[in-house]
Write a structure and sequence with these properties.
Immunoglobulin-like, nine-stranded antiparallel β-sheet, eight-stranded antiparallel β-sheet, 36 strands, 36% strand
Length: 747
């Protein structure tokens, strides 16, 4: 999918193809000389581990696009999002004892974020590189040898999931890999930056969900819906509402947001069944919009299903070190977050008998077999607990001075009374190697609400310490910018599309909230205000993946039209762009939009950078088009192998009767005129300027699409026995003449 601010980097892919064989040679050497000895040292059973074949194949990773952030970020950093696709033919085989294990192919898709910071005034000009995936990458592995048992249906899902979780624990937010490029560079604050904020999600209710339960394939019963909510690697599940297509949950969930723009809120609805839960629709919400709006309370249309809306209230909290904001919440919700940077421990006892003088310990130590176990260094991990939530660190093997280097976040309800409990345990024995309790009220004595020190361990050796940095931040709701037009329902975005039989959410569509009159500048008095409004919005980068909102021009003018209609209800304007007062200031605005860095992101529109110029926008709408106009956005989505047609709206339609018209749009991809492949928008009642903003997809290869023609008709929804003319107008677009990868938007 091509976005206006995602750039294609074919030159970089050509470089990768050239250097891939050399990279393969380096990796083969690394596997033999570095990885093999490390695997052998891990366990006595792995001492015979040998790599018998290492070949990284001919196919190299491909970068489908790069998005560079320069405006929304600190001047001393550069942020790049790389869309990575790797369909590899690598082969790696190894022998352990008499068993042969191996991999003979890997598929990986994901968005890798690369942060270059801090930028320096001397060589190497970049202090460090930080890498992480925004969401869990899609991963598939073809196994070979004994390990091809993992390809058995049922087991393969489990094996791939385990490996995805292993990758997520190291490379998916909030986990990062930071590589310093300059000597003596302190990278602790780069590996563990303070999160951007907290999103509180009130899952309220849903309506008109699809029926999934059926009896003998015929009688449909009511479903038992529940919701899965996800931000990054954190997922919560709501309660299940039995036998209800309009469920009411009234539940609240809280997520820590580490990267904005980048992270999104994902909501999936399922019907709970004894065998397999049925998918009922999903929602993807841009957290950038929620952050800017502060509070969003909307009914969102579900995507990837035929009907259904979800009512969410979303609240954005910024993190401040102001102790006055730490008042207790009457409803028991969080008022702060605690960030724990777990660094290391020193002089851990080899076992708990080193500091216990009981007879039980003395008896056990006499046992020779046990003595061997107690003599070796401990393999330790840490359990951190605040309230009823416990988190576990990774395990550091065979070290009395373990280095964990991890960060954890906890929601805090009462900073004055809650405590952090730390317990270091040995992996091989259930015994505790040391404990520590830190009252969060100690953090309040520091003006920055931060503690960075060694903490003495209790129930341990006298010189045993644990090094941690604790940061407390209050949750604060800031007032939104009064000049900003709220995103509202437009905060929702289309996620990765799965193919469903019925295209799109066609039964019901909630139109975007209408701007208040006070927010819309008066057209006739001050045309400069309109221009400044558009310029301001064009600077906002909503970072959308895929959305179903209108392009900027029609959206803004629709708002003006709405304001005019409210001010003068007796004489509704015949067209959004009909009066000369609107037309006059619009021309320079269109030129300004052409130069904006993210024109399409302004209206949350998923397409390439359209040349919105006065030549293809018939602003004056003369007599050469007596039947009216339709605005369409068409592009080809390469990754999904589909033609995307966005029906924005119509203007100046000619009524077919005195009764008024109820227009809808019908689409065929000729020569296919089958009823099943027909696409159809919702019906708009009694209007000659309908606004649809509905998206449809035709899943065909680009070569096939280039040979086809779009047949689009605007029709009047009339009673079956009516004599009124049904067709209001028609247009055909020869797709062989268009640059579909770039896309086009036009009246």
């Amino acid at each position: 999918v091509h976005f206006p601010d995602v750039e294609r980097v074919e030159w970089l892919n050509k470089v990768l193809i050239q250097v891939w064989p050399y990279f393969g040679t380096i990796m083969e050497k690394t596997f033999k000389e570095v990885l093999e000895p490390k695997i052998r040292a891990k366990n006595v059973h792995l001492k015979t581990c040998t790599f018998t074949k290492i070949h990284f194949g001919e196919k190299c990773p491909r970068i489908n696009g790069i998005k560079a952030y320069t405006k929304e970020i600190d001047r001393r950093q550069v942020i790049l999002d790389l869309q990575i696709c790797y369909i590899g033919d690598c082969e790696i085989h190894m022998d352990i004892s008499k068993f042969n294990l191996g991999v003979k192919g890997i598929q990986l898709y994901g968005t890798l974020r690369v942060i270059l910071e801090p930028l320096l005034t001397d060589a190497p000009f970049i202090g460090a590189v930080t890498l992480f995936f925004m969401q869990k990458p899609h991963l598939e592995i073809n196994w070979a040898g004994m390990s091809n048992l993992l390809d058995v249906p049922g087991i393969n899902v489990i094996s791939d999931t385990l490996i995805q979780d292993f990758v997520a624990a190291r490379l998916v937010l909030p986990n990062r890999i930071t590589v310093p490029l300059k000597k003596n560079m302190n990278i602790a604050h780069l590996r563990f930056p303070i999160p951007h904020g907290v999103i509180r999600v009130h899952l309220l209710e849903a309506e008109n969900l699809v029926q999934k339960d059926s009896f003998l394939g015929a009688i449909r019963g009511k479903s038992d819906p529940y919701a899965l909510l996800r931000v990054g690697t954190v997922q919560y599940r709501s309660k299940t509402v039995s036998r209800d297509l309009n469920p009411i949950w009234n539940e609240t969930f809280e997520f820590v947001v580490h990267e904005v723009p980048g992270q999104d809120l994902e909501v999936d609805l399922y019907d709970e069944d004894p065998d397999k839960d049925d998918f009922m629709g999903s929602l993807l919400i841009s957290l950038v919009d929620v952050m800017n709006d502060r509070t969003v309370d909307e009914w969102f249309p579900l995507s990837k299903t035929t009907s259904g809306h979800l009512h969410l209230k979303l609240e954005w909290f910024s993190l401040v070190n102001d102790q006055e904001k730490l008042h207790e919440d009457k409803k028991g919700l969080s008022t702060a977050i605690l960030i724990v940077y777990l660094d290391s421990a020193f002089n851990l006892p080899k076992n708990h008998f080193e500091y216990s003088n009981g007879e039980c310990g003395a008896k056990k130590i006499k046992n020779n077999k046990y003595l061997k176990k107690t003599e070796r260094e401990p393999s330790s991990f840490v359990l951190l607990t605040v309230g009823n939530k416990t988190q576990k660190s990774k395990t550091c093997n065979f070290s009395k001075d373990p280095m964990w280097g991890q960060a954890f976040t906890f929601f805090v309800h009462s900073a004055h009374s809650q405590s952090l409990h730390v317990e270091i345990k040995d992996k091989d024995r259930d015994s505790a190697l040391g404990t520590s309790v830190v009252c969060l009220s100690h953090l309040l004595k520091d003006p920055n609400m931060t503690l960075d020190q060694r903490f003495q361990l209790d129930h341990s050796s006298s010189d045993s310490f644990i090094k941690m940095k604790l940061v407390l931040r209050a949750l604060n709701v800031e007032e939104p910018d009064p000049q900003r037009v709220k995103a509202g329902v437009n905060a929702s975005k289309q996620g990765p599309v799965r193919v469903v039989e019925k295209g799109g959410n066609q039964q019901k569509f909630v139109s975007p909230p209408k701007p208040e009159v006070s927010k819309v500048p008066p057209v006739s008095k001050d045309s400069a205000a309109l221009e400044s409004l558009l310029k301001k919005d064009s600077r906002e980068d909503l970072d959308t993946n895929d959305s179903s909102a209108a392009p900027v021009l029609s959206e803004t003018v629709a708002g003006l039209n709405e304001a005019e209609r409210e001010q003068n209800p007796e004489h509704p304007p015949s067209s959004a762009l009909h009066t000369r007062a609107v037309v006059a200031p619009t021309l320079p605005v269109v030129q300004e939009l052409r130069l904006a860095p993210s024109v399409a992101s302004l209206g949350s529109l998923p397409s390439s950078c359209f040349e919105l110029s006065s030549s293809n926008l018939d602003l004056h709408n003369g007599t050469e088009m007596p039947l009216g106009e339709i605005q369409l956005t068409v592009r080809y989505a390469s990754i999904r192998q589909s033609l995307v047609v966005l029906v924005n709206g119509c203007r100046n339609l000619v009524p077919s009767s005195n009764r008024g018209v109820d227009p809808y749009v019908r689409i065929y991809l000729l020569p296919d005129r089958r009823w099943a492949s027909r696409k159809k928008t919702s019906v708009k009642k009694k209007t000659l300027n309908p606004q649809y903003d509905e998206k449809f997809e035709f899943f065909e290869s680009l070569e096939d699409v280039k040979k086809r023609t779009l047949d689009i008709a605007v029709k009047n929804s009339r009673p079956f026995i009516s004599q009124e003319r049904k067709e209001l107008g028609k247009v055909r677009i020869d797709l062989s003449q268009e640059d579909l990868i770039k896309g086009f938007a036009q009246w």
